[in-house]
Amino acid sequence: MTPTKPNWVTVWTASAQGAYPVGSAVAQPDLSRAIPQHDKGLVNQSFRTPIKPAIAANKFRLRISNVFGTKTLRLKDLSISLHLGGGAQVPGSCVEIADMEIEAGETAWTEGVEVRSMHQDVVIPATDRSIVFSGWVDGESGPITWHAKALSTSYLSQPNTRVNKDDYSELAFPFSTTSVFFLDAVDADLPNNCHAIVAFGDSLTDGTFTSLNGFDRWTDVLQRILFSNGRSEVAVLNAGIGGNQVLRPLSIHEPWRGGPAAIERLERDVLSLSGVRTVIWLEGINDFSDNGNAELEAVQSAMIEVIHRLRAAGMQVIGATLPSAFKSTRQGHGRHIQNEKRKALNQFILSSGLHDAVADIDQVLTNSTTGCLDSLFDYDSTLGEPGDGVHPNRAGHAAIANEIWRAIT
């Protein structure tokens, strides 16, 4: 019998944004002992990265990124396991993946591998569908391609420490990070009716003030809304990068905490993913900040270009208005002229007719009396600190998800 060809659908993403430590992590522990020299990166060192696929599956492949690296990345002891919790794996669930060498500036997919979730000799915890990607860096990784604001915990061994792949405990991983190194996409072999929605944007999607390990960004909430309404065939992917802009930087080689401009990273972070039918685009607030200082017309033109590229790829495009950052305490935001540009861009998004639908996020997050981000949504759900007038908390993200659900149904 001829083997069935896999139907790959992307079920998890963490968009590569630069080389560590350029970026904006949340609640990041001190990594000076884990990574003493940024230019050397991980040195003969093991890593363990739990991930939570949007849809449960038995067969996966992973995309490893060295796009911001400067030397060949050599990975060994690669595996996928079931996640027991923390830095631990379910004993007996480890499935090996072939060693990889990835040249600087490149990405590469692993082979497809089946997890051992159906084996009778594996005890599966009654937790969730999380899996763990593990491996060992042979030599120096060089600058680490990463996603800073993962808002979930991964684990590192000490430098020059190779953890046996059969060691399922977490004792050999003393260092933790709230970021993701090397891994930027995971595909699953799913039934033919399954497909993906990509959330493309900045920190309003990346989830700056949501809960660490709470999985309560608006993309997570939308995934749960879909499941609750019988839409278990749809994977919601988060391709947000904190600080990202539509227009800047103009080159992938410019180190900017917000990563390459949306117009440049579109191919890698959206178009190259598997099984994508819909893109939800919530972005533009950083283009009007002091760091962006873009003209309204330039942002509009770039948005039109991106939408045409998405349409040419056969994708549905959902627009989203920008909530207020007026009177924000965050550096670079909050001024009147920026707020006027935001309002004008919102009007363009609402009236241009370019989108299949528009989610009016401004209406649900902006207080109609003050013109600022509503106080109900303006505090940090992880650190418990006051808000900055730009980033909504977990309650705000739930409101965003509900509005997007309204727009797409």
Largest sheet: 8 strands, antiparallel
Uncertain spans: 122-127
CATH-level-4 superfamily name of the largest domain: SGNH hydrolase
Distance between the termini: 41 Å
Question: What does the model show?
Answer:
- With 409 residues, the chain is of the alpha+beta class.
- The chain has helices at 203-206, 218-228, 262-271, 296-312, 336-351, 361-365, 394-408, and strands at 8-13, 18-19, 43-51, 59-65, 73-85, 88-89, 95-96, 100-102, 107-109, 113-114, 131-140, 145-147, 154-156, 175-177, 180-181, 183-189, 195-201, 234-240, 276-282, 316-320, 357-359.
- Helix 5 links the parallel strand 20 (316-320) and strand 21.
- Helix 2 packs across helix 7 (394-408) and helix 3 (262-271) packs parallel to helix 4.
- The two termini are 41 Å apart.
